[in-house]
Design brief:
The protein contains 18 helices and eleven strands. 39% of the residues lie in helices and 13% in strands.
């Protein structure tokens, strides 16, 4: 078992998380996991969609039992401020005085109303890294269009219509898939900007869009589509690129995916040790990759017929013996039983304030082989308000007055 985290490369870096819902808060989460002191700013009513998202995900969403909010906001401190008031704006600007990174995904007009647009903020705080995330980028007719990952990432990029079997309806979006990817990309950009500031003593704006992050992730597939008449032709299980790039059902109802990208390296041993039909290795229809591509449908049918005769455990034994690249098509609820995921802290048990134990996915980046540590649960609404205000110079009487005026909680 790897040792607990003691390497925090961003220790001492102060981050203001002035964002909502998922993608931008996940960027702040990554920085918090890597050691940054992250303060999450919420309105007095809370980051409503983030705190309520559990309702749409079949998860509890009580104040002391909110696993979805914990996943997005662990390791952060929290303050609730009415930023529409002059006093609230003053609090944010005081916070920025000692802040290295500000992260936001507010729409441009909202940022201008709050005097938090990049042009205004960068003049007052030239060393600040201003990280901005939106749906569609800073230019073009859709620059101000609202965008969630379900639309801008999953649908506009083509994932919903290009994945799945040919001829089927668009896939329903998977919640958070694009948010997590895009937010983590932004965290990497922020780290690069911090490195540049260490060299130049100048801050900058770091920007990413959900749509652009999706296209980056799909670069190879888009290249294929651009070089295929009529666009990308989706492979199917009955007509794959070739038989060693396909999914097959076992006799006990599970699915196995073969991903032997190097066909010519694996075909012979696959025939001998997995299919146990050694004479098939020299069949000219399949012996070389270009022939296998031409005859992928026939090759897949032979493999399908053999796989459906055997149970999952037997086929795994044969595939391991042959050292062929494969994976079991695993369901999400099964991952918490996967020894590989548990041993590496890819997924880990997490105790909520209510005392209930649930599971969270660990930060994928490791430093010195150390396991990520959750040092702070996600904040209750306004939980660290007094603490944070005191740090930026507010007296106890001033904090009380702000609470009485409902500027903070």
């Amino acid at each position: 078992m790897a040792k607990a985290t003691t390497t925090y490369p961003l220790a001492g870096v102060k981050v203001l998380d002035l964002s909502t819902l998922l993608a931008a808060p996940i960027s702040a989460l990554a920085l918090a996991d890597w050691g940054a002191d992250v303060i999450k700013v919420e309105p007095l009513t809370g980051d409503y969609l983030a705190r309520m998202i559990g309702a749409t995900m079949n998860c509890p969403f009580k104040p002391d039992d909110n696993i979805c909010f914990e996943i997005i906001n662990r390791n952060k401190r929290g303050i609730a401020v009415d930023m529409k008031t002059d006093e609230g704006k003053a609090i944010i600007h005081k916070l920025l005085t000692n802040t290295d990174v500000m992260i936001t995904n507010f729409r441009p007009e909202a940022l201008k109303r709050l005097d938090m647009d990049y042009e205004s903020v960068s003049k007052k705080f030239p060393r600040l890294i201003y990280a901005y995330l939106n749906g569609y980028g800073d230019k073009g007719q859709d620059r101000n269009k609202p965008g969630f990952d379900l639309a801008a990432y999953f649908v506009r990029s083509g994932i919903s219509v290009e994945f799945g079997e040919p001829g089927t309806e668009p896939l329903p979006p998977v919640a958070g898939f694009g948010d997590t990817t895009t937010g983590t990309f932004l965290a990497g950009g922020i780290c690069a900007a911090l490195l540049n500031r260490a060299r130049t003593n100048k801050g900058c704006k770091v920007q990413i869009a959900l749509y652009s992050a999706a296209l980056w992730s799909l670069s190879l597939d888009i290249a294929s589509a651009n070089n295929t008449e009529g666009g990308w032709g989706r492979p199917s299980r009955s007509k794959p690129r070739h038989g060693l790039l396909n999914s097959y059902k076992t006799s006990d109802g599970r699915w196995l995916t073969i991903m032997a990208v190097d066909h010519d390296r694996y075909w012979s041993v696959f025939c001998k040790k997995v299919l146990r039909i050694p004479e098939l290795a020299d069949d000219p229809r399949f012996s070389k990759v270009l022939a296998a591509i031409e005859n992928g449908e026939s090759q897949a049918e032979i493999i399908r017929c053999e796989f459906e005769k055997h149970a999952l455990a037997e086929l795994i034994h044969r595939l391991r013996e042959a050292d062929v690249v494969y994976e079991v098509c695993q369901r999400w609820h099964e991952i918490k039983y996967d020894p590989q995921a548990i041993e590496n802290n890819f997924i880990m048990k997490y105790e909520l304030p209510s005392g209930r134990t649930d599971w969270i996915v660990g930060n994928p980046i490791k430093f010195n082989g150390e396991d990520m540590v959750v040092s702070r649960r996600a904040p209750l609404l306004g939980e660290h308000g007094a603490e944070v205000l005191k740090e930026i110079g507010y007296s106890p009487d001033q904090i009380t007055a702000l609470r009485e005026k409902k500027i903070v909680i």
